[in-house]
Each structure stands twice: as structure tokens, then as C-alpha cells.
Amino acid sequence: MEIPVPDSLRKMFSSVCFPAESKRAFLVLDTNGTIKYGSPEVGNYLCNDNNNPTLLIGQSVADIFPALQGDLSWPESIRSHYIFSPESDNGFEFEFVGWNRREGREVLLKASLAPLEIEDRRFFLLELFVLASEDNKLHKFLEVSEFNGDAVAVTTVDELIEYVNPAFEELTGYRKAAMVGRTHAVLNSGMQEPQFFVDMWKALRAGRTFRGIFVNRRQNGSIFYEDKIIRPYYNARGKMSHFIASGRDVSERIQIMHRLEHLANHDCLTGLPNRNLFLDRLRQAEARGSRNHEGFSVVVMDLDHFKAINDTLGHAVGDVVLQTAACRIRQCLREEDTVARLGGDEFSLILTEISSTRDVMNVVEKIVVLLSEPLAIDGRDIPLQASIGIAIYPEHGEDGHTLLKHADNAMYQAKTAGGNDFQIFEGKEKEHFIFSLQKKI
């Protein structure tokens, strides 16, 4: 049976625990967790009616905390170890979200539970301390962001911008007044894959942090690369309320990376793809051909008499010959085709969307005609000729490596026959076609 607390003892709670003028918020509990006293200030956080703490007396503290937050219950460990264990001399602290009725806002509270002895009777003192509110925490973050070198933007979960810092203004060229109420779409350059943003929103909506390189457009139209981290922000009730983005300009670093990548995949003299990039595109063509049952052709070209030009006229003239040949070949191809310099005077082509042998021959004949135009250097007309080999998918091979080897074999057969020829690969069971360019020109 519960032992009642005399009025005289209740009066002592306020004077023993805290002076009468104190604004501290606390409850006094018996060892069963029943509230025996509530300070005037505690009513501001725990009472629904006129902030009257006397209404709490007689209630179980386990019934009070679920009323504050639907998914919050008095911890089992506290009930069993601290409230129902009179011999306990330990304290206990935990945090929870409450409501400051006087100010009409959420607050983060810390509850401190400790044993209390009054007139040889054991009680527990549950004191509430107001921590920083979530609004104040966000406000303090924004104050610090004013001096942050990174570009910071805060948006609502509806994607509307609520705040940008001075670094954001400097990076994008947009003033804060022009950005508030808008979305980040104003920065979209249109150069990013749509899937990038699909992945971004999927991560953020799931409560995960997202980091990526954004290709953005400034107010003046210039493009910049931003390394940005976006984090979900949760309010005091644990609900996602904002997204906080912090980014910095990495355009110079990205440009250097692009330059290094270009150098790693392109020939320095002609600017054409090198062997690495050519083989990568060949693998792509092979995969596309297999998937879509689409024909394509591999063409290998070797300039005739290039060594003689180098030896007699010098390497500088030889370089001009290679650059001119690269330019003329490129003029005969579509954007989706590839021409690469594999080394020396050897060029390789990938012609896509080929439906017949005639399609390949039409392109090769254009190249031959354009190459044959004399190249004038220092008053000399230097003739350009080439030996060309052709292999077609899937007739001459079902993988890129085989096609390249067969095209190379066909090119050497054309060169052996005197050069200035193109030849389609001769399979063991296929008719051998040799087209003499001397007869066509």
C-alpha cells in the first residue's frame, strides 16, 4: 500500500531541494515512480492545463513522458534500477524533446535523476535542464557559416532555399535575396546526367549524406565544378526538416584531371585517340553490336613511304604529314565514328552502324580521294597514299581483338601488293576481294 506524503513534507520539498525563488524545474518521485511534488517551473514543460504542476501529483512518471512524444517511453532500465530500487545511490541522465509552453517552441531537455533523502525517507529528484533548442542550434550553425570559406546553402525538404552564405554568393554570383525561395535548379548547367540527381535525391530522402561533383552554371553563364556534401537535418522531434549543403570550387582540379585524362588517352601530336582509348571504344562497339545485332567495321591504315619522307625531309615535315593525314581522315567520318593513331604512321578506324560492305567502301573511298590531294610544304608537293585493311563485324570476327587482327592482316596484304590499295579481309571460306586504287583514281 502506498504511504501518503504529508502536506508538511511536500512543503519541505521546495525548500529542501531549491529555494522558493528558484526557477528550476523538477519533480520529486517516490520509490514506485509516483510523482509527489512538482516545482512551479516544471509545469511549463510537463503540464497541459494552465501549467499547474499540482495536476501531476499522484501520476506515475512512466505516464508523463509518453505524452511528450509519441514514441518516447520511460526507459525500462530507469524504472527497474533507479525508481524501484530504494537502495540505489546512483544518478542517471538522459535527454528528450519537450515543449516550452510559455515560449511556444520545442526544446531539448536533459533529465537528471538522483536519489534524495528527506526525513529518513527515500525519494528521487528528477530535474529538467533546458538545452539548446533545435532552432537555436540551426541559427548558431548559420551564424558560423557566415564566416565559412565553403559555399553553404540550407533548403527545406521541399527543395526551397532558405539561406546562403557569403561564400555561396561569391562562388555562384547570385545574391542571397535572389536565391531565397528558389531551388538549386537555377545552378543546373544541363551537363550532368539525370541519373546523378536521381541518386542524390534517393540518398537524401533516405536520410543519407550525399557527396558528389556538381557541374554548375554561375549567374554570368560560366561553368564551374563544385565538390558538394549535402546532409539531411532533423528537427527536435526527429523529423527531417532541412538539407544543408556545403561545397567548394574544384574547377581547377577537375580541369587538371581532365587534361591528364586527355593526355593518357590521346596522341599528343595529332590529338586523336591513342591505343588505350581506341581499344575501349572497340569494346563498346563490340558490346553494342552484340546487344543490338548491329554491324560495325574496323579499318587499319598505314601511310605509304612515310619512312622515306621522314628520312629525306626531316621529322618536322613528317609531323606535318601525320597531322594532315589525321585531319583529312577525320573530315570523312561521322561524329559517332572513331579514328585513332596507334603509333608511327598507323591509324585505325571504327565505323559504326554498318549494314553492308558498300557502306564501308564508301567511307574508305572518300578517305583515299582526300588523302591523295598533294600536301604543299616549303614549295614541295608531297603525295599522301595509304594501304588500308578492312574487317567487318560479325562476318570477319565476333570480337574486337579478332577484327583488329584481321584488318591488320588485310592492310599488310594491300601493302605487299604495292600499296595505295585497300583490301577486305580474306576469310578461309570467303571470296578474296582486292580493289586496286590505282585503277579507281
From TrEMBL:
**GO molecular function terms attached to this record:** catalytic activity
Q: Which residues form the PAC domain?
A: 208-262
InterPro entries (UniProt xref): DGC-Regulatory_Protein, GGDEF_dom, Nucleotide_cyclase, PAC, PAS, PAS-assoc_C, PAS-like_dom_sf, Rev_trsase/Diguanyl_cyclase
A Pfam family it matches:
PAS_9
This protein's source sits in the domain of life called Bacteria
What CDD domains does its record include?
GGDEF, PAS
Residue stretches making up the GGDEF domain: 294-427
Protein name in UniProt: Diguanylate cyclase/phosphodiesterase
Organism of origin: Sulfuriferula multivorans
